UniProtKB/TrEMBL annotation:
Entry keyword annotation includes Metal-binding: yes
Gene Ontology cellular-component terms listed: apoplast
Lineage summary: Eukaryota, Viridiplantae, Streptophyta, Embryophyta, Tracheophyta
Disulfide partners: C23-C40
UniProt GO molecular function: manganese ion binding
Source organism superkingdom: Eukaryota
Boundaries of every Cupin type-1 domain copy: 54-204
Family membership: Belongs to the germin family.
Alphabetic keyword roster: Apoplast, Disulfide bond, Glycoprotein, Manganese, Metal-binding, Secreted
Keyword flag Metal-binding: yes
Binding site for Mn(2+): H102, H104, E109, H150
Protein name as annotated: Germin-like protein
A Pfam family per the record: Cupin_1
Subcellular location: Secreted, Extracellular space, Apoplast
Amino acid sequence: LVLLALAFSFATAYDPSPLQDFCVDLNDTTSAVFVNGKFCKDPKLVKAEDFFFSGLDKVGNTSNKEGSAVNLVNVDKLGGLNTLGISLARIDFAPYGLNPPHTHPRGTELLVVLEGTLNVGFVTSNTDNRLFTKVLNVGDVFVFPIGLIHFQQNIGNTPVVAISGLSSQNPGVITIANAVFGSNPPISIDVLTKAFQIDANVVKYLQSEF
């Protein structure tokens, strides 16, 4: 029974395998019953537009604190992705811009650089916390294993464009700083001072920034 329970938990941890050619998201939010969070449109009503998205040619707005912009094409933007276990993102970086440390809890990420130079890396889980980092140029590819904290930074004075493929129709994202210092309601200052071994005033300042 224990082995069966473990096997069942593992099997449901990822996007389910499709049992038909496609299951286009019906985009119906009125029902309380969901299959993988979505309803399937009647196959007879499916059109080519259900498998189409336009817009990744547009440069993202990088005029923010991080100097980066992510345009994620997941199942919420492209209904035809439902049950197919894949999504895509365009990432734009201003000069020296950063896509800050974050994780995708439901997907591995495969990134290719189209323009510019990126410094990328990920950190393994406890207790090693080993950092793997690499400078990528145009045409280079790097993979970030599912669930591990990773980052990308433009290390040049020209913009960077990258494309990422993700092994989930809805990989999710947890930006570490936002989650820790910008939670709602806030995490206790006592917890954060002990966890990061920093002064309470520093914690208060960081929480105010988010």
